[in-house]
Amino acid sequence: MNHPSYRDRRRATAPPRLPGRARNARRLSAAAAVAAMLLVGCDTGTSKASPHSSGSGVSLAPSATPSHSRSTFAPALTTAATACTNSSKLAGWSNRRLAMLTIAVPVSETSVSDATSEVSAGAGGVLLFGSKAPSDLGSRLTTLKSHVPGHLGLLVMTDEEGGGIQRMANLVGSLPWPAYMGAHWTPAQIQQNVTKVAKKMAAAQVNMDLAPVVDVDGRNVAPSHTNPDGWRSFSGNTSVVSKAGVAYMNGLRAGGVIPVVKHFPGLGGSTYNSDFGPARTLPWSTLQKVGIPPFTAAIKAGAPAIMVSNNIVPGLGTNPASLSPTAISSELRGKMGFKGLVVTDSLSAKAISAAGFSVPAAAVQALRSGADMVLFDLGSNVSSQTSSIATAITNAVTGGHLSRSRLIDAAGHVLAVRHVNLCS
Predict the structure, then answer these.
(1) Which of 330, 303, 301, 296 is nearest to 315 (CA)?
(2) CA dist 291 to 222, 288, 351, Å?
(3) What are the pLDDT digits (tens) for 174-189?
(4) Rounded to two decimals, what is the model's pTM?
(5) Per-residue pLDDT tens digits for 128-140
(6) CA 241/CA 49 separation, integer angstroms
(7) Among 308, 210, 212, 291, which Cα is nearest to 251's?
């Protein structure tokens, strides 16, 4: 710093010497400027990221420092801001841990502790089954969540649609069938009533609802083996379903619950219920006019998650939609621009086995196709089934059948829907 040539250049370009008082004032001003620059640098490097941010905790707000100091500090700020993301953090995780994050483990709402070992191993969510929740469900789920590695949160989901599809109405209050809501309630009334239920769900530590159903189906029947919708649908009118679906979705969000819009690309008019065997939707050309608009409306309104059906879609391939890269990656992600969480319908469905897939193999295919989280049914072998799915995913990455980047992307979507920031 005391190189002669540097001193000579400094003297050659120095301004005329000022009187004593002026020189002192200029020194104080310069010192203050340097102190301000250092203070800004220190503050920026230690600020915390908000829970919804994806950066490293560096503030990107405009600096109050002079323009000449901005050019000095900008490169360091840019480097710090891009140094840490959820993806970069997840890249350091093992394949097994990433795989576990993409699995929702089924469990009885009366015995949620049964999923403790799977949650401790890093499962991304639990799916509650049952028809009457215990009064202390909230405290039981709080205990279960305490086992999550790193306390990164847990998706606790259930089916609370209304009518005959309600798991915990005894705790949160009852809703009528969606068909009734669509016919008798305004969108504002739907949102208001759903919000009341959602607030009680959130109080019981349930933070995700596998609803609303935005399939367009006007058949005036209860859901059955031959018709998965019926009264589960708001209407046979596409416009009514679009408005009611967004209202239901917003009601859940207002109550602190994450909605999962289903069943993409629409089950209205299906040939059968995929839970019980192979099923086909209406042709893709028809769905684009009748069934897709409610999903488009939900996406425009900020839908955080979408469930994909197990039906084959004529015109989009021969696999069930949940296992179809054309349906998920090309249409839902690509053309429709959905960037949120993609969840499969239950891979235990007979339509999946009829297509030649075991549950673990279907999980791998679903992830390859663009899904982020896989669901399966409650049974006597949940622990071994969960382990088999995680092993199949891990082996698929090792064997080159599933890219590690796709697995990291899926895990990232699971964290994002819960607003988890690994860099904060």
Answers:
(1) 330
(2) 20, 6, 21
(3) 999 999 999 999 999 9
(4) 0.81
(5) 999 999 999 999 9
(6) 38
(7) 212
